[in-house]
Specification:
- The protein is an alpha+beta fold.
- It has a 7-stranded mixed β-sheet with strand order 1-2-3-4-5-7-6.
- The radius of gyration is 18 Å and the shape is globular.
């Protein structure tokens, strides 16, 4: 338990339909956005995401772990059953993007089989962040909130009959968290996960498109003693619950 921070499964009482890229959110602020400052179709995403999150929560019990500081959501860990990614049009299930990265508007109308009918009882960690990795000053970093959310997910998943949890990761480089909010390999290993696969990240094979990012990766890798050919690999970390 982190003093002043409550961590547990997201419920229908408050569905975090937006992510924390801009910082913590509450029931008073989540529906506020500036159309003049942002061309994202927020109202469309709100309708799509609320119906999707409601269905996921009712079907599986939860689809996110959240950390609360009073009325503020200051941490999120979203997770989905692996089978959902195989449904046509699912994309990467990103709630702040449209197809193909995000789900279509009618995705909640698809058939979501209950846990008892699943042969593959694996949960995939979709994303995790505390505060916002994009904030210059983030008072919620390095407090153990990420570790607390993963611990809560492990406990919840084991109690509710899931067999495995998988998370995509990278080598331990600061820029990865700064850009994606994702945790590195060592973080997951400390939580009991093991490396089960690694392969070149599809998008990062286009060096011309991501030159600055890859260049920074390589610089940080050299300082950390990590072979440069590994920095664009995507790592699959797995925890067996049964």
């Amino acid at each position: 338990m982190i003093e002043g921070i409550d961590i547990g499964p997201m419920t229908e009482e408050f569905l975090l339909w937006r992510c924390l890229h801009g910082g913590p959110l509450s029931c008073k602020t989540i529906d506020r956005w500036s159309a003049a400052a942002d061309n994202m179709p927020w109202e469309r995403y709100r309708r799509r995401n609320l119906s999707l999150l409601e269905k996921l929560t009712r079907t599986y019990g939860a689809c996110a772990i959240v950390a609360r500081d009073g009325d503020l959501i200051v941490g999120q860990l979203r997770f989905y059953p692996r089978i959902l990614y195989g449904i046509k049009g699912a994309g990467y299930l990103c709630l702040q993007q449209g197809p193909p990265e995000g789900p279509p508007d009618d995705f909640a109308d698809r058939d979501f089989p209950p846990l008892a009918q699943l042969e593959d009882k694996t949960l995939l960690v979709h994303c995790m962040m505390t505060g916002s990795p994009l904030q210059k000053e983030n008072p919620y970093q390095r407090l153990g909130i990420g570790s607390g959310m993963v611990g809560a997910l492990i406990e919840w998943a084991g109690t509710n009959g899931w067999g495995h949890i998988e998370a995509e990761s990278f080598e331990d480089l600061h820029i990865v968290y700064e850009v994606t909010g994702g945790a590195g390999r060592t973080f997951w290993e400390k939580k009991g996960f093991r490396l089960v696969d690694r392969y070149p990240h599809p998008e990062l094979q286009d060096r011309s498109r991501y030159f600055e990012f890859i260049h920074t990766l390589e610089e940080q890798a050299e300082s950390a003693g990590i072979p440069p050919e590994r920095v664009t690999d995507k790592l699959v970390m797995r925890l067996d619950l049964t």
